[in-house]
Specification:
single chain, alpha/beta, Rossmann fold, 6 helices, 6 strands, about 20% strand
């Protein structure tokens, strides 16, 4: 264990936080363009609960898939940080389905080390799951078991551009997932 610790000095490590958007009700019950589906009441509670959680990890930069529910998931934190949320059109489920390689490349770009603080990315489950699984496979990391619940959080630790650890928080709410 000590050899592994010494192989990755803390000064060389950084993190990327990946969040599945908070609850937004069922897709089939929403009338209108699914891109515009907002958070429901529980989703708004999850978004509020993410503020102190992501603050613990030093998140200062926010990026979200171009979906209302992804933006709303980060709005409370953006307000607290007095920062903008960067839209990520390449991290939607549709963009991933159309070109997984381009979505993966964009996620890796967002994970690059920066002196501007930790970045958090919010996306959708059918994009997050395969992207994280590919990244873990590429870098030989075992992912913890997860159902990729709405509002769940992945803390990814990187050494440069290489993923070395993935930790999962199934819910930002006290008491765990409410799916």
């Amino acid at each position: 264990m000590l050899e592994e610790f010494l192989a990755h000095p803390a000064t060389d490590l950084h993190q990327l936080v990946v969040v599945r958007h908070a609850k937004a009700g069922r897709r089939g019950r929403f009338t209108g363009d699914d891109a515009d589906r907002p958070l429901d009441e529980e989703g708004r509670r999850q978004a509020e609960a993410l503020v102190p959680l992501l603050d613990l990890y030093g998140v200062h930069r926010l990026s979200a898939a171009d979906r209302v529910r992804c933006l709303q998931t980060f709005e409370p934190l953006a307000q607290r940080l007095h920062t903008e949320i960067q839209l990520e059109k390449l991290l939607t489920e549709e963009a991933y389905d159309a070109d997984p390689g381009t979505s993966y490349a964009r996620l890796l770009e967002l994970a690059a080390p920066s002196s501007d603080g930790v970045r958090a990315v919010c996306s959708q489950g059918k994009a997050i799951a395969p992207l994280l699984e590919r990244w873990a496979d590429d870098d030989g990391v075992s992912l913890p078991s997860s159902r990729y619940r709405k509002g769940s959080v992945w803390i990814l630790t990187l050494d440069g551009h290489r993923l070395i650890q993935a930790d999962h928080i199934p819910s930002p709410l006290p008491g765990g997932p409410d799916d």
